[in-house]
Specification:
Elements: E1 2-6, E2 9-11, E3 19-20, E4 25-26, E5 33-35, H1 37-54, E6 57-63, H2 69-78, E7 82-87, H3 93-104, E8 111-115, H4 126-134, E9 138-148, E10 151-158, E11 161-168, E12 171-175, H5 187-193, E13 198-202, H6 231-240
Parallel strand pairs: 1-6, 1-8, 6-7, 7-13, 8-12, 9-12
Antiparallel strand pairs: 2-5, 3-4, 9-10, 10-11
Helix pairs in contact: 2-5, 3-4
């Protein structure tokens, strides 16, 4: 089985968020970058598990500059066999998807795994776009995946229950919580990652959108503490001052 896992670089969740250039550019000063957790914990680990069960290879693909190499090496340390970095600045979802699909279309992959979204943009757009460009089936927000021959059996949460889906490979899916458990790179994996192939491909695709401005959410207001014996005051505040979220 030949598996491609889409890996994105994202700011650590503890990073200070700020913007420059009049709110148009994310300020990366002092920011520590990590593998996007949904890509790492769910998509990558499940891909490695399938390789261990059925044989084959796991390749990661990342769109970005050389600054992404450390997070790519972490994915290799976890268990991917090799990696591809498309040397282009990711500007929007359409451009990123086009670059991934352009690489994948002639590589005979059986399965493309993505995290459900990135923790910085939260768009959930790239996996579906890749599937459309390749004309492959797409399953969103999958929580379970098994493969038998050319057939994949999946589960995903739906309103009021769980949806069971069967589809033939090749397939693109976005992985959600429940797909796999996080793996921590061991020393052997970290050492072997240094010698695993990281191939740089040139890619070019036009962005379809641009950022007008980023803005931070408003600061939280002061918390009002109402004594337990003043229920009438609490009701008044809820009616007169509380705002819908």
């Amino acid at each position: 089985m030949k598996i491609l896992v889409c890996i994105s670089q994202a700011p650590d969740t503890t990073s200070r968020i700020a913007f420059t250039d009049g709110g148009k550019t994310f300020d990366s000063t002092g920011v520590q970058y990590i593998v996007n957790p949904y890509d790492e914990w769910y998509a990558l680990v499940r891909g490695i598990e399938l390789k261990e069960a059925h044989g084959g290879t796991v390749t990661t693909i990342t769109v970005g500059g050389a600054v992404c190499d450390p997070v790519i090496r972490k994915a290799l340390a976890i268990g991917a066999d090799d990696a591809v970095r498309v040397d282009a600045e990711p500007t929007d979802a359409m451009q990123t998807a086009e670059l991934i699909a352009s690489y994948a279309k002639n590589q005979a992959f059986d399965l493309i795994l993505c995290g459900k979204e990135t923790i910085d943009h939260n768009g959930s757009l790239v996996p579906a776009m890749v599937a459309e460009m390749l004309d492959w089936p797409f399953i969103a927000l999958a929580t379970h995946l098994e493969v038998e021959g050319i057939e994949a059996s999946l589960k995903r949460e739906s309103a009021g229950g769980t949806e069971h889906v069967k589809v033939n490979l090749p397939l693109v899916l976005s992985a959600s919580k429940g797909m796999a458990e996080q793996r921590i790179p061991n020393m052997r994996g970290i050492m072997s990652a240094r010698s695993k192939p990281l191939n740089v491909e040139q890619g070019e695709a036009a962005a379809m959108s641009s950022v007008r401005q980023f803005s931070l959410p408003p600061e939280k207001g002061a918390c009002k503490i109402i004594p337990a014996d003043q229920a009438e005051e609490l009701i008044r505040l809820l009616r007169e001052e509380a705002k819908a979220i």
